[in-house]
Amino acid sequence: MQLRLLKNSVISTSQTLAVQTVMLHGERDKLMPNNLKHFAVNADDVERARDFYQQTFGWQFMAWGLPGFFLIKTGTDADPGVHGALQGRREVVPGKPMFGFECTIGIESIDETITAVETNGGKIVMPKFHIPTVGTLIFFEDTEGNVVGAMQYEEGYGD
Q: Which residues of 51-89 are buried (b: 16+ CB within 10 A; e: fewer)?
């Protein structure tokens, strides 16, 4: 595929990335939108972490589900940002505590994603788990040892 640019034209970084995506993958419409949909902050001391993020970034927290679990609202109603959670530190993979932000990718099909992860050298480390009113979640380890979540959200979740 050839790409022609006009002489002296200026292309922004986002335009360049869009062009690269089209060149690598063909028509953009054929790709599934596998957007980052959720992050979780894992903490040894949930209350201390809640105070930190509330005071540092102005994030709002709402208790949800199990004790010590909070939903995080990072933005405003006009610009809500990414869904977040604050939770106690856990080990999805035995012996590997979750440090840093835990990210979950929104996917269209949990079963197709499981197949794709395994086909491409990844490993499912937490089997399908259904969270009522939210969706079905897995965790996988990528080829570099990173543990990542993938969630098939229920219809209408987050709208």
A: eebeeeeebebeeeeeeeebebbbeeeeeeeebbbbbee
What pTM was estimated for this model as a whole? 0.61
Q: What is the dihedral of CA 102, 108, 113, 114, to 10 degrees?
A: 90
Please say whether the beta carbons of 87 and 38 come within 8 A. no
Distances, alpha carbon 128 to alpha carbons 19, 36, 89, 103, 124, in Å: 36, 18, 20, 16, 9
pLDDT tens string 104-118: 988 889 999 999 999
- Can you give the pLDDT at residue 5? 35
* Type of residue numbered 128: K
Q: Is 105 exposed, middle or buried (0-12, 13-18, 19+ CB in 10 A)?
A: middle
